[in-house]
Fold these 4 entries.
Entry 1:
Amino acid sequence: DAMVIQNPRYQVTQFGKPVTLSCSQTLNHNVMYWYQQKSSQAPKLLFHYYDKDFNNEADTPDNFQSRRPNTSFCFLDIRSPGLGDAAMYLCATSGGWGQHFGDGTRLSIL
Amino acid sequence: AQRVTQPEKLLSVFKGAPVELKCNYSYSGSPELFWYVQYSRQRLQLLLRHISRESIKGFTADLNKGETSFHLKKPFAQEEDSAMYYCALTGQGGSEKLVFGKGTKLTVNP
């Protein structure tokens, strides 16, 4: 039973063309996170929501935005993807006892 | 500053041998420590958290505040333990952001 669901699993976009990745959860957790994970590297936190409160990491590029319209859904928007943004993007949730991760979306940039 | 150090990028052992994956941390306060595992082509998943003091899949980890370490141990490694292992910490409460180590790739040879 997938509790954190990311769509799509694979996303291909063109250089500079906006792209949106989505995440939904069935856990009713109040905290949701977006991570970027490049090959052979640890996940790097981009931002997180505590309920509706948005928390951006200091080194997250302005190119990355996020929306959380309700408890269940969270979106990652990349306004003008560059080649360096090709990575696995992980969504996670937390209800206070460790984070639960989705399968990730692998983003490729042409 | 919050930091998690996993000194070994790669670790290779034979089946049946003991394995220890090292993790040291730096945190001003009382962190919560976790081990996450990522099997090939699978999602990142929680393996252990120090507050639970549990054994999962034969793995244990003890928090040593004096040495600021949280090493992961298993007395007899199995081939199915081959995976990427990440040590991580967060502030108390469990809902704050995770700081990951760079990970250790464990290979258990037959």
Entry 2:
Amino acid sequence: NAGVMQNPRHLVRRRGQEARLRCSPVKGHSHVYWYRQLPEEGLKFMVYLQKENIIDESGMPKERFSAEFPKEGPSILRIQQVVRGDSAAYFCASSPLDSPYNEQFFGPGTRLTVL
Amino acid sequence: LAKTTQPISMDSYEGQEVNITCSHNNIATNDYITWYQQFPSQGPRFIIQGYKTKVTNEVASLFIPADRKSSTLSLPRVSLSDTAVYYCLVGLSGYSTLTFGKGTMLLVSP
């Protein structure tokens, strides 16, 4: 009964490179969320997706960041031309279709370091 | 979205009961109160959710007074493994976006 899986767990990129973060939700969950956590801070919402649709991307920077959740395969958070300020932990969460609670299941996160 | 205020940190000893209070003065009528726990280098984990009065599960209890302007997460007989950051969130039940503050860092000592 696997939970949310994220890979890689750690990612190092140089400024200007691209970072691709993958998230496989809990089996049967159709909602995926991405959050970013800076050191000593709480998580900040970035984007909410359902299969093949972006529902809410109000927390995602307009430039360089994109997200997708294709019909088949994991959800991808893509950061182009990374800068040092992108260094953070990126968490993916999933929830079932009709959750009565504010319960999201979080993955272990991907720690991105930009050199 | 209702803003929450909670202590930055708390200290306790094994076996004690810990109560973490969260203030949410401008909570809306339809908002629920949810608590998450986050261990170092891990994603947050849902603990409990409530609307009013008292909610209890196998992990914790949540006390919410009648005016709902605050709530208290109660952890009975904490152990070292309860050392974590605890987040209080306020929002619509089942809503898609979770808004996390800085949370309360609970340190449990032997």
Entry 3:
Amino acid sequence: QSALTQPASVSGSPGQSITISCTGSSHDIGRYKFVSWYRHHPGEAPKLLIYDVSNRPSGVSDRFSGSKSGNTASLTISGLQAEDEADYYCTSDSDIGSPYVFGTGTEVTVL
Amino acid sequence: EVQLVQSGAVVKKPGESLKISCQGIGYSFTNYWIGWVRQMPGKGLEWMGIIYFHDSTTAYNPSFQGQVAISVDKSITTAYVQWSSLKASDSAIYYCASTRHGNHHWDYWGQGTLVTVST
């Protein structure tokens, strides 16, 4: 079972918007509406940003938004801030192998 | 406040056994799943497996099946992952996370447990 594919790195200037893609297959993203996104500062606990493709938990900034088309999900961060520098992971349900699969992770750099 | 509190960092030798824990504090785990996630040095997150607190139903990532055992002790709202014979390649940070039964996203996460396996 392969990990979902994310770009290794994405960068942007403060105030800009960036989008992180997460590409899977018909066995995961293409089949389920259960894509979630997490922000991970190394050494800390990951934090849930988006669930069920596009829902934000209470307390998460509306600068974070999610979407899905076919086998690809996306996370958009608007109004980029220095605190957004972190690693970002998508995850999805899967019908082969592991019940869940992570993306390969994307390092976001604020220039 | 809801928390998942994991056991502390540990250093072991190859071939030794190990059991690390994840205790839920602040709510009842009865209707929750616990997942275990590995992060090897410089690498991404990987699902190891999940367990349902209510009845100990487990589902493993095939890559970890037979390599680790996931369990729970409902009486102390604690989940575990254990190894019977560690390898150097088991050196990693291990996270636990929880989700309510019926949900598919992981709301709460432990702080991570660093496991170092070295001679």
Entry 4:
Amino acid sequence: AQTVTQSQPEMSVQEAETVTLSCTYDTSESDYYLFWYKQPPSRQMILVIRQEAYKQQNATENRFSVNFQKAAKSFSLKISDSQLGDAAMYFCACLIIQGAQKLVFGQGTRLTINP
Amino acid sequence: KAGVTQTPRYLIKTRGQQVTLSCSPISGHRSVSWYQQTPGQGLQFLFEYFSETQRNKGNFPGRFSGRQFSNSRSEMNVSTLELGDSALYLCASSREGTASGNTIYFGEGSWLTVV
């Protein structure tokens, strides 16, 4: 069974600064995907970034980037130039590529942006 | 392109009743999965359907069931509702079989309150 752990229940950052959210995972599978989702107060789960496990290059989407350390099973999210609209719950999730499409989520990190 | 659509968005039921939630996936997506989100348990996988077949089921009692239709639309049903079933129920879809097929997109959720 796979597990995903987010060790930071809450984080805060000043507007325009950079913040890093941590995530570790555990799986015995070799083929999987990792995701960061954002859930604002509306509770809509919004995809932030995706990383294929077979790719060594870290994924980047505008101000969002990841540090994927496969051997360490670590997948952190870096948000640069933080904006007020980035305030939300952030969930790290792992998808095993075998049969059913089933995401395993971490417990989430609540990110607050201070103006 | 329309996203994942869930109906109803909000509903209140009484203990012992049953409820049916509906989900229309993104056009072309054949995999539909359901998740329950509660403050105590976080995000938990309920089940996943692909081409009208249930491929995987989470650790939930038999009161939770689902189905998928030939047009990929899905419904989930909870019978004999309990107070603990109060939660946000999220539906998600993915295309599968393509380079980006292993990305899962979520609907806005259905808020269920059991009184």
